[in-house]
Amino acid sequence: MIRPKKSLGQNFLIDQNVINKIVSIVNIKDKNILEIGPGTGNLTLEILKRKPKKIILIEKDNNLVDLLQNRFDKNVKIINEDVLKINECLLDDQILTVFGNLPYNISTEILSKWILNLSQNKIWFNCLVLMFQKEVADRIISKFNTKDYGRLSILANWRLNIKKIFDIQPSCFQPQPKIQSSVLLFEPRKNFLKFKNPKNLEKITRAFFMHRRKMIKKPYYHLFNNNGNIASQMGINLNLRPQNLDFDTYYELTKQYECSRS
User: Fold this and answer.
1) I need a labelling partner for 221 at 20 to 30 A (CA). Which of 147, 165, 176, 249 fits?
2) Which CATH class is domain 6-188?
């Protein structure tokens, strides 16, 4: 019997109705599938029933890899590695449809890594169907002027269209987590502001949200070397707080920051 490892944030999805709903979110027949953290393979089995072209699984736990190999034989390709150490752009030469019951302890790190590593011209996936703890999902889909709005929502909405699909109760997992989970659907944006280095967006938002209850005047002047012209040109009130600036303002600020450094 495989026991979930708390150190790896493992909570195995066991509710068949929820599994069916997740697999039905997008059409996967004849598609190339990537599944992150397949666990014991309950979702994998349902994906296989929908006749995809191929399935790639990424699983870090050696014991689960053995179980998955025995359960699915040659029907899947298994990569026994930490997803954070993999260059996802090199996983396959085909566009992938991605499913993931992401480990709670590294879910935001995975999503942030994928976004920051995205090519400006070619994207390695057509959609992401990902599960997060509900608190994290609420932050991802939050809008400005709300308490959950912050770095994660700004980063995610830069390159992705995001839709919440449904919530999942703790009783659907083994072991049962203490919190609810949520499934989100992400699809690439066709139009977005291009940066020289996407990590500058992360730098800008980190500086502004480090003290989210304080006015943005101090981090702004620190980033722009006490030059208030850019804020004036953009019509930004420096007495506002970080959550009062919308997505596009942060993207334009990042663009201006890069121009000021060139």
Assistant:
1) 147
2) alpha beta
